[in-house]
Amino acid sequence: MFATRRIGAVIVGAARQKHTLPELPYEYSALEPVVSREIMSLHHSKHHATYINNLNAAEEKLAQAQSKGDISTIISLAPGLRFNGGGHINHTIFWQNLSPNGGKPSAKLTQAVEKDFGSWENMKNQLAASSVAVQGSGWGWLGYNKQTKKLQIATCQNQDPLQATTGM
């Protein structure tokens, strides 16, 4: 019952190592003045770490329930696994998309955005418009739809991860 793509944990034989907080590729203060050191530290070392701790606890309970054949407990763990697993996946992606040095999108991404949205400005406006309705811990995403072979904007509630929720 493990995903084929793991972030922050390794499966070794039948034993599972616990998920760990990924290191940031920059210092907490690197995004100042846009994002303060305090906000980065709190969001990474406390907020993201809480998702990881709760995910590890839920996976331990899942393994125990599976070993006992306790289907009721297995089912009851699904929401916590989804929320905390999604929180871990989403935040791991989020940290990789921030940079103290700015950056430019690749030519391939630029070409796809222009083909599917007309311009970066149109894509950003559509993403902002769809994301503004998301409340709480929801996310707005620019994803790739493998079936249509196009970029697509999607929103996910709570900490639902994009791929597991939409297939993008």
Automatic annotation (TrEMBL):
PANTHER family: SUPEROXIDE DISMUTASE 2, SUPEROXIDE DISMUTASE [MN], MITOCHONDRIAL. It is an enzyme of class 1 (oxidoreductase). Destroys superoxide anion radicals which are normally produced within the cells and which are toxic to biological systems. Residues 105-162 form the Manganese/iron superoxide dismutase C-terminal domain. This is Superoxide dismutase. One of its GO terms (cellular component) is mitochondrion. It comes from Chrysodeixis includens. Residues 18-99 form the Manganese/iron superoxide dismutase N-terminal domain. Mn(2+) binds at H43, H91. Gene3D superfamilies: Fe,Mn superoxide dismutase (SOD) domain, Iron/manganese superoxide dismutase, C-terminal domain. Its EC number is 1.15.1.1.
